[in-house]
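Sequence in, structure out.
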Amino acid sequence: MVGVIILYDHVHPVGAFAKTSKIDMKGCIKVLKDQPPNSVEGLLNALRYTTKHLNDETTSKQIKSMLQ
């Protein structure tokens, strides 16, 4: 799931984090955070540091705070 989000974020003009995106980012992040922390910390870090549009203005503050 994380790999597809990263790929989509890189190839789509507005990215995966925009409100107009077809991806339920809040739901995806919640699913990841419900897993044991030691097994998903690397996946959350991948979303934090390898995505292109996370820090864009079109990204909601709630999504940004979920990944902090």
